[in-house]
Write a structure and sequence with these properties.
CATH topology of the largest domain: Heat Shock Protein 90
Structural class: alpha+beta
Strand content: 15-25%
Helix content: 40-55%
Number of helices: 11
Radius of gyration: 42 Å
Strand order of the largest sheet: 2-1-5-4-3
Distance between the termini: 73 Å
CATH architecture of the largest domain: 2-Layer Sandwich
Number of domains: 4
Order of helices and strands: HHHEEHHEEEHHEHEEHEEHHEE
Largest sheet: 5 strands, antiparallel
CATH class of the largest domain: Alpha Beta
Length: about 425
């Protein structure tokens, strides 16, 4: 359209010049001059409309306003169609981009692995729900916020290079944790961001350690049973043969008594190993929701004689707090821990045991705290090892059995000890 207007204007101006050169009449040149002026005005308006349309088109692209449609009559049909098609392409591209971004954001926020994306200034552009659950910081928005967990954690995370992976030992919400952190680097809108993928290996390592001990004990008990059974049988056979003898004499009687003692001791060991092996088979938890306070009060009532001279305080926040667990196994764990706490206090009088339960960002924490002398530093790392005990008449299976029960519930048990006492913490998911 604009090209046609320019050609028509040129033709009109050529005709005007030709008439001016060939004739002395004024009317016709004046008429042609008015036509030229009119054509110039129309052409200027058309050019202005096209320039304005271009400005609006580039502004729409710049501000990503792809709702604009060009329908002005002053524009060429081909130009209007071209602008509208480009706008539609941009609109489709943005819709695809938004859909992909929304899909990626949904995936990152719902995968079970904690993710964080940090900018150069430390601000977090992305923190998914598992990362907030892991840290227990619902308002996590900056790397500096992690100092409430570990004062050196922001620097230790920043020291991990892109494409690298590192194990970090730290503490999260009062629980020791071993984190496997993977770092990658991405460019978002011209800025470089660091993407942190964090895995808490503490539960996995405890489960593997427990599994290793179970396998070892299973092999040992099997071999011991295989050895003791023929020895016991042979001892009983020897006793029967000696009983059938007519005259044993004093020396023969001593031999019979010694062999009989070996047989009895062997049978006792077989029964002990069989019982221990059965006890290590933690039954599948039959979990149900139940109130924690009545359960703690029931354990306290059951151990009333053991705690006769010990002050026992129970705190549950909120008071109606419930836990999803096997009630029988729950009681067994609490009984073991409370008895351990009472034995740690030792001499009657002046002792205190505190049972505290609370909700911690979706987890139920139950602390059993005593004011005894604590656990010796050289023994602390061995308390969960089966058969390890510091008590004269202890079997060394209580804490290891408690850990098996907690692992069966998908939780964990931790210990914190000092000269002022010991705290055993149960963590239920």
């Amino acid at each position: 359209m604009t090209v046609f207007q320019v050609v028509l204007l040129a033709c009109t101006m050529a005709a005007l010049v030709s008439i001016l050169l060939k004739t002395s009449y004024i009317a016709v040149p004046i008429l042609l001059l008015l036509v030229v002026v009119l054509q110039v005005v129309v052409l200027v308006r058309s050019v202005q409309a096209h320039v304005q349309a271009l400005e609006e088109f580039f502004a729409a692209v710049n501000y990503e306003d792809f709702t604009r449609r060009f329908v002005e009559d002053d524009l060429d049909a081909e130009l209007k169609d071209a602008f509208n098609k480009v706008i539609e392409r941009f609109q489709d591209a943005r819709a695809d981009r938004d859909m992909q971004a929304g899909y990626l954001d949904t995936v990152i926020r719902h995968v079970p692995v904690p993710f964080m994306a940090a900018r150069d200034d430390g601000k977090l552009s992305l923190v998914n729900a598992p990362a907030r659950r892991l840290t227990g910081l619902p308002g996590l928005a900056h790397m500096e916020d992690l100092r409430v967990l570990d004062d050196t954690l922001p620097e230790r995370l920043a020291a991990i290079g892109p494409g690298k992976q590192r194990l970090l030992q730290t503490s999260i919400r009062g629980l020791p944790a071993e984190l496997r952190v993977s770092v990658s680097q991405i460019r978002m809108r011209g800025a470089i961001e660091r993407l942190y993928s964090i895995e808490n290996l503490s539960g996995e390592l405890s489960a593997r350690e427990s599994s290793a001990w179970r396998n070892l004990i299973r092999v040992l008990t099997h071999e011991i049973m295989n050895t003791l059974t023929p020895i016991t049988s042979l001892a009983q056979t020897t006793v029967d043969m000696l009983d059938d003898s007519v005259e044993l004499g004093s020396e023969g009687a001593d031999i019979r008594e010694a062999v009989a003692t070996i047989g009895r001791r062997g049978e006792g060991l077989i029964r002990f190993i069989a019982g221990y092996r059965e006890m290590l088979k933690v039954p599948e938890p039959k979990a149900e929701n139940f109130a924690i306070r009545p359960a703690l009060e029931a354990v306290a009532a059951l151990l009333q004689s053991t705690l006769a001279n010990t002050e026992l305080n129970i705190t549950v926040t909120p008071a109606t707090l419930e836990v999803y667990a096997d009630r029988h196994l729950f009681d067994q764990v609490l009984i073991n821990l409370v008895k351990n706490a009472a034995e740690s206090i030792g001499a009657p009088g002046g002792g205190e045991i505190r049972l505290a339960a609370r909700l911690d960002y979706g987890r139920v924490l139950i602390d059993v705290t005593d004011n005894g002398g604590g656990i010796a530093a050289e023994d602390f790392d061995q308390v969960f090892i089966p058969f390890f005990t510091t008590k004269r008449e202890g079997s060394g299976i209580g804490l290891s059995f408690c850990r098996e029960i907690m692992a069966a519930h998908g939780g964990e048990i931790t210990l914190d000890s000092s000269r002022d006492g010991t705290t055993a913490r149960l963590v239920f998911p």
